[in-house]
Write a structure and sequence with these properties.
binds uridine-5'-diphosphate-xylopyranose; Rossmann fold; 443 residues; six-stranded parallel β-sheet; 18 helices; 3 domains; 14 strands; alpha/beta; N-(1-d-carboxylethyl)-l-norvaline Dehydrogenase, domain 2
Length: 443
């Protein structure tokens, strides 16, 4: 099938390459000429495991190209909208300017029978509005909604092997046609038995934000339990292991620590709350305000612990921060809890040195006032305190004895409950984490 993908970031870049690898003829359209050039040369413009290999595989078929010109989308049967919907500055609501611009740019090139397929995360009601625009701009064309659930760091697998397909179809007489095209483009996943939920446009938009709201709530729930453990002397990791054994609860997304960040969960729950207000259902989502506050309190608590460990003030203390990305296997620092703690400690006069296996460049661009190091040993040289804030496997596996030789004081704050405290204590480190009792070094 000939398909276009409008917007080639984490979502669209991977989607375009994935569809080409599956045998479709794909043109990726993006406004950013640098990104287009890199993708067109087979280079991933951001760090995403397996994306370079997928791009190489897709390019080798000769069926994948990228352009800045939306006119090249003409002639495609499906047009996937994959542009970003960031938080509006100073507000909770989503900024839809990229979605609106993408549809406006696409309209003159649509032909009857074309299906525009929204994948971006949007406030409910957006798809209905875009559907009207598409039908008015090109009678015979339609719009469907097909939300995407990919996680950064696992984007390739999540794209090629989704755990479900949600198809929101418009009730405009084109349902069978749109369904047939979507089933054709996703034939590989459907042949493998991937479950399909077919629904209306409204529900399809809600599915995505509901999923993210649920995940955010689950993380904040366990972080609220971490606060209870801190107040009472309990251990939140044992608690999570125990309640997670209940199949109705499940252990996934129950890791207590610094909480959620990134380009999706924080802004999506805020945009969902804003939309609830607009549609007259504000009370339905007021709990998300609490989810957001619990999440942000974890960052404050981490800075409090760092201050305590340094005897009341971090001023003049050397602090090594391991991790800048919002989670491992990503170079994304948008709303990164790790960077936000590092910035707070810098503000309080700490000599903060940050390292990350992939995100240093992005972190430097976002926080040029911080100092960066190439690796953990350089970051931790003469450190009074080491903070593990993103649980990259290479940090979780660090040899505490080796790191102990370069620091001034063997004090670890584990912001992700990621390392084995016994191993670090045996190597002479004191250990503190969120939601767990403090442990002194073994003598
Ligand atoms: C999320 C959704 O998972 C995905 O389905 C959606 O399409 C986009 O948003 P992503 O932002 O890539 O994906 O990251 P995710 O793996 O969900 O992690 C989000 C944040 O939660 C990270 O900062 C992570 O460190 C944190 N997290 C996750 C926890 O603090 N505890 C957990 O148990 C799990």
């Amino acid at each position: 099938m000939r398909v276009s993908v409008i917007g080639c970031g984490y979502l669209g870049g991977v989607h375009a390459a994935g569809l080409a690898a599956l045998g479709h003829d794909v043109v990726g359209v993006d406004l950013d000429p640098d990104r287009v050039e890199q993708l067109d040369r087979g280079r991933a413009p951001f760090y995403e495991p397996q994306l370079p290999e997928l791009l190489a595989e897709a390019r080798a078929t000769g069926r994948l190209r990228f352009t800045t010109d939306p006119a090249e989308a003409a002639g495609c049967a499906l047009h996937f909208l994959c542009v970003g919907t960031p938080q509006r500055p100073g507000e909770h609501a989503a900024d839809l300017r990229f979605v609106d611009a993408a549809v406006a740019a696409l309209l003159p090139h649509l032909r009857p029978g074309d299906v525009v397929v929204g994948k971006s995360t949007v406030p409910v009601g957006t798809a209905e509005r875009l559907h009207e625009q598409v039908v008015a701009g090109c009678p015979g064309a339609t719009l469907a909604w097909n939300p995407e659930f990919l996680r950064e760091g696992h984007a390739v697998r999540d794209t090629l092997e989704p755990d479900r397909l949600v198809l929101g179809l418009a009730d405009d007489g084109t349902r069978d046609h749109a369904r047939a095209l979507l089933h054709e483009v996703y034939a590989a996943a459907l042949d493998r038995g991937t479950p399909v939920v077919e629904t209306d446009l409204t529900t399809a938009q809600l599915v995505k934000v509901a999923a993210n709201a649920f995940l955010a709530t689950k993380i904040s729930f366990i972080n609220a339990m971490a606060e209870m453990c801190e107040a009472t002397g309990g251990d939140v990791t044992d608690l999570a292991d125990a309640i997670g054994r209940d199949a109705r609860i499940g252990r996934q997304f129950l890791s207590a620590g610094l909480g959620f960040g990134g380009g999706c969960l924080p802004k999506d729950i805020r945009a969902f709350m804003a939309r609830a207000g607009e549609v007259g259902a504000v009370q339905a989502l007021t709990f998300l305000r609490e989810v957001d506050s619990i999440n942000l309190r974890r960052r404050v608590r981490m800075a409090d612990l760092a201050r305590e460990e340094c005897g009341g003030s971090v001023a003049g203390r050397r602090i090594a921060v391991l991790g800048a990305a919002f989670k491992p296997h990503s170079d994304d620092v948008r709303d990164s809890p790790a960077l936000s703690v590092a910035a707070q400690l810098l503000l309080e006069g700490g000599e903060v040195v940050v390292t990350d296996p992939q995100a240093v460049e992005n972190a430097r661009r976002s926080r040029p006032d911080l100092k960066f190091a190439a690796g953990p040993e350089e970051a931790a040289a003469d450190a009074d305190l080491v903070l593990l804030l993103t649980e990259w496997p290479e940090y979780v596996g660090i040899d505490p004895r080796a790191l102990g030789r370069v620091v001034r004081h063997r004090r670890l704050l584990d912001g992700r409950n990621a390392v084995d405290p016994a191993r670090w204590r045996a190597a002479g480190w004191s250990y503190r984490a969120l939601g767990r009792p403090a442990l002194a070094a073994e003598s």
